[in-house]
Amino acid sequence: MPIPLRADFDAAALRAAAQQTKDAAQARRLLALAAVYDGASRTEAARLGGVTLQIVRDWVLRFNAEGSAGLVDRKAPGQVSRLNDIHRVALAAVLESGPRPAIHGVVRWRLVALSRCLMTRRV
Protein backbone atom coordinates (compact mmCIF):
# COMPACT_ATOMS: atom_id res chain seq x y z
CA MET A 1 0.00 0.00 0.00
CA PRO A 2 1.65 3.27 -1.09
CA ILE A 3 1.91 6.23 1.26
CA PRO A 4 -0.89 8.68 0.41
CA LEU A 5 -0.08 12.22 -0.68
CA ARG A 6 -1.25 15.26 1.28
CA ALA A 7 -4.90 16.15 0.80
CA ASP A 8 -4.32 19.92 0.84
CA PHE A 9 -2.63 19.87 -2.60
CA ASP A 10 -3.70 18.66 -6.00
CA ALA A 11 -2.09 18.14 -9.41
CA ALA A 12 -2.90 21.67 -10.59
CA ALA A 13 -1.30 23.24 -7.52
CA LEU A 14 1.86 21.19 -7.98
CA ARG A 15 2.08 22.07 -11.65
CA ALA A 16 1.67 25.76 -10.80
CA ALA A 17 4.42 25.47 -8.18
CA ALA A 18 6.65 23.70 -10.70
CA GLN A 19 6.08 26.50 -13.19
CA GLN A 20 6.99 29.18 -10.64
CA THR A 21 10.14 27.62 -9.21
CA LYS A 22 13.59 28.39 -10.56
CA ASP A 23 14.97 25.08 -9.22
CA ALA A 24 14.86 22.51 -12.03
CA ALA A 25 15.20 19.52 -9.69
CA GLN A 26 12.30 20.73 -7.54
CA ALA A 27 10.17 21.27 -10.64
CA ARG A 28 10.91 17.71 -11.84
CA ARG A 29 9.89 16.32 -8.44
CA LEU A 30 6.73 18.40 -8.32
CA LEU A 31 5.70 17.27 -11.81
CA ALA A 32 6.30 13.61 -10.92
CA LEU A 33 4.11 13.96 -7.83
CA ALA A 34 1.48 15.83 -9.87
CA ALA A 35 1.25 12.76 -12.08
CA VAL A 36 0.54 10.67 -8.98
CA TYR A 37 -2.27 13.08 -8.03
CA ASP A 38 -3.65 12.57 -11.56
CA GLY A 39 -3.78 8.81 -10.98
CA ALA A 40 -0.44 7.66 -12.38
CA SER A 41 1.29 4.84 -10.57
CA ARG A 42 4.38 5.47 -8.47
CA THR A 43 6.33 3.47 -11.06
CA GLU A 44 5.19 5.86 -13.78
CA ALA A 45 6.10 8.82 -11.58
CA ALA A 46 9.56 7.31 -11.06
CA ARG A 47 9.95 6.96 -14.83
CA LEU A 48 8.81 10.56 -15.35
CA GLY A 49 11.22 11.80 -12.67
CA GLY A 50 14.06 9.65 -13.97
CA VAL A 51 14.57 7.98 -10.60
CA THR A 52 13.82 4.75 -8.76
CA LEU A 53 10.64 3.91 -6.92
CA GLN A 54 12.42 4.30 -3.56
CA ILE A 55 13.35 7.89 -4.40
CA VAL A 56 9.74 8.69 -5.28
CA ARG A 57 8.79 7.33 -1.87
CA ASP A 58 11.37 9.64 -0.27
CA TRP A 59 9.91 12.58 -2.23
CA VAL A 60 6.42 11.70 -0.99
CA LEU A 61 7.61 11.60 2.62
CA ARG A 62 9.41 14.94 2.30
CA PHE A 63 6.48 16.51 0.45
CA ASN A 64 3.98 15.28 3.05
CA ALA A 65 6.11 16.64 5.87
CA GLU A 66 7.22 19.98 4.41
CA GLY A 67 5.14 20.69 1.32
CA SER A 68 6.76 21.79 -1.93
CA ALA A 69 9.68 23.34 0.00
CA GLY A 70 10.64 19.83 1.07
CA LEU A 71 11.49 18.96 -2.51
CA VAL A 72 14.35 21.48 -2.76
CA ASP A 73 17.85 20.01 -2.69
CA ARG A 74 19.48 20.42 0.69
CA LYS A 75 23.10 21.13 1.35
CA ALA A 76 25.06 17.95 1.94
CA PRO A 77 26.39 17.75 5.48
CA GLY A 78 29.98 17.23 4.32
CA GLN A 79 32.87 15.90 6.31
CA VAL A 80 33.05 16.54 10.03
CA SER A 81 35.69 19.10 10.97
CA ARG A 82 38.91 17.58 12.26
CA LEU A 83 39.57 20.58 14.50
CA ASN A 84 37.58 21.27 17.62
CA ASP A 85 37.33 24.70 19.26
CA ILE A 86 40.47 24.16 21.35
CA HIS A 87 42.47 23.25 18.25
CA ARG A 88 41.19 26.30 16.37
CA VAL A 89 42.16 28.65 19.20
CA ALA A 90 45.64 27.11 19.42
CA LEU A 91 46.12 27.32 15.65
CA ALA A 92 45.00 30.97 15.60
CA ALA A 93 47.49 31.77 18.37
CA VAL A 94 50.33 30.13 16.44
CA LEU A 95 49.39 31.99 13.26
CA GLU A 96 49.23 35.31 15.09
CA SER A 97 52.57 34.86 16.85
CA GLY A 98 54.30 33.83 13.62
CA PRO A 99 56.86 31.11 13.11
CA ARG A 100 60.04 30.82 15.14
CA PRO A 101 62.93 30.02 12.79
CA ALA A 102 64.78 27.94 15.38
CA ILE A 103 61.73 25.76 16.03
CA HIS A 104 59.78 25.81 12.78
CA GLY A 105 62.65 26.26 10.30
CA VAL A 106 60.88 29.06 8.39
CA VAL A 107 60.74 32.84 8.72
CA ARG A 108 57.16 33.21 7.47
CA TRP A 109 54.23 30.86 7.30
CA ARG A 110 53.47 29.29 3.97
CA LEU A 111 50.83 26.62 3.66
CA VAL A 112 53.33 23.81 3.10
CA ALA A 113 55.43 24.83 6.14
CA LEU A 114 52.36 25.22 8.35
CA SER A 115 51.01 21.86 7.18
CA ARG A 116 54.36 20.21 7.94
CA CYS A 117 54.41 21.75 11.42
CA LEU A 118 50.85 20.63 12.08
CA MET A 119 51.56 17.10 10.90
CA THR A 120 54.68 16.81 13.06
CA ARG A 121 52.87 18.55 15.95
CA ARG A 122 55.55 21.21 16.36
CA VAL A 123 52.97 23.94 16.77
From TrEMBL:
<dbReference type="Pfam" id="PF13551">
    <property type="entry name" value="HTH_29"/>
</dbReference>
<protein>
    <submittedName>
        <fullName>Helix-turn-helix domain-containing protein</fullName>
    </submittedName>
</protein>
<dbReference type="InterPro" id="IPR009057">
    <property type="entry name" value="Homeodomain-like_sf"/>
</dbReference>
